[in-house]
Structures are given as C-alpha cells and as structure tokens.
Amino acid sequence: MDAKHAKQLSKELSRALRHTPDLYGVKLDREGWVPVNSLLAGMQRLPRWRHITQADIEQVVSFFNKQRYEIAGNQIRALYGHSVPIRIEKDSATPPPILFHGTSQYYAQSILQSGLQPMGRQYVHLSEDIETATNVGLRKGKDLAIFRIDTAKATTEDIRFYYGNDTTWLADSIPPQFISLISR
Ligand code: HQG
Questions:
Q1: Distance between Cα 50 and ligand 1 center (Å)
Q2: Nearest Cα to Cα of residue 13 among 36, 47, 30, 45
Q3: Long-range contact list for 105-109, CB < 8 A, 24+ apart?
Q4: Is the CB of residue 140 below 6 angstroms from any atom belonging to ligand 1?
Q5: Looking at residue 1, what is its pLDDT?
Q6: How far apart are CA 111 and CA 105, in angstroms?
Q7: pTM score, whole prediction
Q8: What three-state secondary structure class fits 182?
Q9: 7 Cβ closer than 6 Å to some ligand 1 atom
C-alpha cells in the first residue's frame, strides 16, 4: 500500500470509528470497539472501497508511526479523537507530570481564559512531548502556540487523565490555572 492510499484509508477509518459509525452500519461499544468484519462489510458498500480486505485494514493500522487504531482479536477501535454522541469510556491513568497542547495562536487567549475544552470531540487531546504538540498545533495554522499543562498539580485537584497512545493523553477539560503558554 502506498502512502497516499494509506492516508485515504486511515481517514475513512477515522470517519467510521470516531465520528459517524452509523454511515458504515456499525455501532461502537462503550470502549469504541466494532467487529472488523462488520466494518469491512460497511466499507465495501462504498464504491471506492468495494475491494477492501481485512489485510488492507491491518496494514493501515500499522502503516503510520502515529498509533490511531488498535486491533484486538476480531475487533478494531480508534484510540482517541471520538466525536460520537455516546461517550467512549477510557480508563483513567497517571500521566507524566507535564503534558503539552499545540494549537494556533488564534485560540490562545480563549484557552488562557476558559481552559482547554474538548470542543468538537469527547476529550481534550494532550501530547507527551513538544514535538508531538508542534505537529498537532501546525494542523491549525502556521502561528503555533504551545501550552504546558501542569498535570501533577491538576491530578492533586481531581482532574482525570486518560491514556490515548504512546504520545497522546486525554482529559475531560483542563481549567486555566494548570495551563501556561510556553511559545508563540
Ligand atoms: C482548541 C489529531 C478556543 C484546541 C491530532 C484545538 C490530535 C479551544 C481545537 C487529535 C479551547 C480542537 C486532536 C478554548 C480547546 N477556546 N479554542 N477554550 N479549548 N480549543 O482537532 O487537539 O491525526 O478537535 O486548541 O493530531 O487539535 O486525527 O483537537 O485547536 O492528536 O489522528 O480547539 O486529532 O489526530 O481541535 O487534535 P481538535 P486537537 P489524528
């Protein structure tokens, strides 16, 4: 599979597993899992993916360094990014003492005032390192803003964090007192 095809298929998986599973005839369970064969059947109804196989899906899941999806047994799920109306349950876990959030300067003032909110998704997304936060933030424009989140302090004040993947953590929201702007 070439990179272009992998990217297209990954975006389609994102639509199915994060945003609009109904359009693919699948239903996410409370942890976001769906049977791979149901997803395949749903995708094969689309002309573009009518020849898609389980091997293609398995390949795209491991194609990118960024771990977006997970396959276990005969099920698949997205690890983060959900916008479906029913909340996907994540196990809370202890994050590193500092996390980062990359975004556009355009949002910086609002974030400093009202904290990080999940906006169109179920959770706020945080990065383990500045490089990841930079890549996330640059999706929103060239005027990068990087925030530092004092997770150690937030944890002592009952803010919960959830594990997404090796570089991504999730939270319900982050109040402004735990956030500082480190670059502009
Ligand atoms: C902003 C991609 C104003 C926030 C990425 C962000 C990530 C506020 C935007 C994952 C705000 C939401 C998620 C407030 C937050 N006022 N703006 N109070 N609170 N925002 O795309 O974190 O490649 O939903 O700064 O790499 O950018 O798809 O979230 O800019 O890992 O796998 O609201 O999606 O992963 O934007 O990205 P998004 P995100 P994939």
A1: 32
A2: 36
A3: 105/141, 105/143, 105/144, 105/145, 105/184, 106/140, 106/141, 106/143, 107/140, 107/145, 108/145, 108/147, 108/181, 108/184
A4: yes
A5: 83
A6: 10
A7: 0.96
A8: strand
A9: no
166 CA to centre of ligand 1 in angstroms: 17
- Count of all residues that appear for the chain in the document: 184
Ligand 1, pocket-test mutation among 67, 70, 82, 107, most atoms within 8 A of CB: 107
Q: What is the pLDDT of residues 45-90, one digit of tens each?
A: 999 999 999 999 999 999 988 999 999 999 999 999 999 999 999 9
111 close to ligand 1 (CB < 6 Angstrom): yes
Query: What's the CA gap between 134 and 177, in Å, rounded?
Result: 22
* DSSP one-letter string for 90-103: --B-PPPSEEEEEE
120 Cβ closer than 6 Å to some ligand 1 atom: yes
Q: How far apart are CA 123 and CA 161, in angstroms?
A: 10
Can you read off the two tokens belonging to residue 51?
A: 């020849």
Closest ligand 1 atom to residue 116 Cα is: 19
